[in-house]
Every structure is written in C-alpha cells, then in structure tokens.
Design goal:
By secondary structure, the chain is mostly helical. The chain has one domain: Four Helix Bundle (Hemerythrin (Met), subunit A), CATH 1.20.120.550. It has helices spanning about 5-35, 40, 50-65, 65-80, 85-105, 110-140. The radius of gyration is 18 Å and the shape is elongated.
Length: about 140
C-alpha cells in the first residue's frame, strides 16, 4: 500500500471542501452585490441567505464536521503504519459518500436520501477507526 494510495481519497475530500467553499463564497457575494441580502443581515451568521445559498453553505459546513475524524484516522494510520487495502477501500467509500451527500444537499436536498448516504459514510469511517484502534492496541509491540 503506497502513501499516495491512502492519501488520494483525503486529497479528494479536501478538493470537495474547497470546491463547496468557493461556490458558497461566489453565491454569497453575488446576492450581496445584487442587493438581495444586506451585509448587516448576515454579519452574525443569521439565516438571511436565499434557500439555494443556504443549501450550498450547509453542504460546505457538513464537509468541515465529520471529515475531521476522517483526516485524523488517515493520519493516525499513516503514522502508525496500520494502512492496508481495507482502509483504502473504506476511505474511498467515505469520500464517495461525502461527494454524493454534497450533491444531494445542493440539488434535491431530500433528507431520506441524504441520511442514507450519510450513514454509509459514517459506518465506513467508524469501521476505519475500529480497525486502526484494534491494530494499534492489539497488534503493535511496545
């Protein structure tokens, strides 16, 4: 298992996060420039944004939450040399679920679909943590 192979899903997750960040910023600046929203209406994160701008913003914020645990487990697995194909497959499952989750979030925003995809990613991530913890505690010599 190469370092690049395990880092590639992490880089894809970072790209998704930045993509949503820039899209959200463009949308927000556009509605402020058009006068649809006044800066003082949103200065303290009040929900005065139009619905589509809120959807993209919420999709971005979702990429800051659960993925923090993904970054941590990947880096932990990398430093403890507990990486393998199983973790790589689970990494891709997590990241692909985040892409699908974000897509649903910014399009139909169907909660039933979003929740199902979210759970797939959350389970993949939880399995990653269980595997890495087990390998560190059970199979590494002190």
């Amino acid at each position: 298992m190469t370092i690049e192979a395990i880092l590639l899903p992490m880089f894809a997750q970072v790209a998704l996060t930045f993509g949503l960040l820039f899209w959200m910023t463009i949308l927000r600046l556009r509605v402020i420039r058009l006068g649809d929203v006044k800066p003082q209406q949103v200065a303290l994160r009040e929900p005065a944004w139009p619905p589509h701008v809120l959807q993209v913003g919420n999709a971005f914020h979702n990429q800051i939450e659960l993925p923090v645990l993904f970054y941590a487990v990947v880096l932990l697995a990398l430093t403890t040399e507990t990486l393998d194909v199983i973790l790589c497959v689970l990494s891709w499952m997590f990241v692909l679920s985040r892409f699908v989750h974000a897509y649903i979030h910014v399009t139909s925003n169907r909660l039933d679909h979003r929740t199902a995809v979210f759970l797939v990613g959350a389970i993949a991530l939880a399995l990653m943590w269980v595997i890495v913890i087990a390998r560190i505690l059970l199979f590494t010599s002190a």
